[in-house]
């Protein structure tokens, strides 16, 4: 038996076919690996006793500024048919610059009884996160009969030269489990000693496409990451948040002038959102979505709390009509702080048109950023901070001169 000092746990394994589901049991502390498994990892022989196909996924930089890597497995159902079974997946990820410090992952997948004549494939997915660098992965899967499938690959996580100034959230050569929960508490941030900036953010928690009937994890991940990027700015010290959904014409969550965003509370509120339902009362209101958005903008941008900046964020809101200019112009003239719009648009070439929030932000002489890739978010927030600091300094100088 080989003794390992630690085993880290991957995000998930989903075995999806003919009602088969995954089961996960995290292992912590000192873990023993049998000698045959260790020998397979060490010899790096590709084995197909258990006939699976492994397709590694290229490390992809997420909006959370960490590289997401992993693998997809296909396994013929006919090869695991019969009585209940269990698949054990064991793999290690070794950074080239720290070959003496591999990270180990384990995953157990329960397979229920499957008819002998079952057709098709089972699919398993595994994920893990990387810092920038080159790595080697030694991977194996075995069943209760000790049949083994093994595979090996060398992923590379690299930033383009034009993005080297981006601060990634994992150091080079780091290997970590992929986070399951998106709305975890944000770690403390060391704030700038000067007077903190007071930021208000309005986020439309909605799918990338308005006609979608579900809010996917990938949609919420991008929006939550926008908030985390803002929350981590040392210049920001006070945060107000309004989370809403335009389709439901509903405020999901509100937080006022707090020291940080309450992500767990936000997550609970977003989880209650049920898209795809029909509210007869809303159907009877011909201009309901436009009126909701108009009232929201007037109330939050023109409220008496006077933030140092207001930031809109979310996917495009393509309504049949824009918010009437005559309703916003009287308020826009009195707004002396910057207004921004971070437009989450994965396919800007397919949908290049301005949306309802764009037109409203323009009335406030605001600035719009299209967020399609992680670099867009990084540079947008960096530029916003610079503009907000400059704006507050200008107002302070003008106020001192007037006195």
Keywords:
8 helices; single chain; five-stranded antiparallel sheet; 403 residues; alpha+beta; disordered N terminus
Description:
The chain contains eight helices and 17 strands. With 403 residues, it is an alpha+beta fold. The protein is elongated, with a radius of gyration of 25 Å.
Write the layout of secondary structure elements.
Elements: E1 2-4, E2 31-33, H1 35-43, E3 53-61, E4 67-76, E5 85-95, E6 103-111, E7 121-130, E8 133-142, E9 148-153, E10 156-157, E11 175-177, E12 197-204, H2 217-231, E13 236-245, E14 250-258, H3 263-271, H4 280-283, H5 288-301, E15 309-314, H6 325-332, E16 339-344, H7 356-363, E17 367-371, H8 374-402
Provide the residue-averaged pLDDT.
84
Helical/strand content category = alpha+beta
Strands in their spatial order, largest beta sheet: 14-13-12-15-16-17
Biggest sheet overview: 6 strands, mixed
Overall geometric form: elongated
Radius of gyration: 25 Å
**What count of helical segments does DSSP give?**
8
What is the count of β-strands?
A: 17
For the termini, the CA-CA separation is 79 Å
Beta percentage is: 25-35%
Brief description of this entry?
The chain has helices at 35-43, 217-231, 263-271, 280-283, 288-301, 325-332, 356-363, 374-402; strands at residues 2-4, 31-33, 53-61, 67-76, 85-95, 103-111, 121-130, 133-142, 148-153, 156-157, 175-177, 197-204, 236-245, 250-258, 309-314, 339-344, 367-371. With 403 residues, it is of the alpha+beta class.
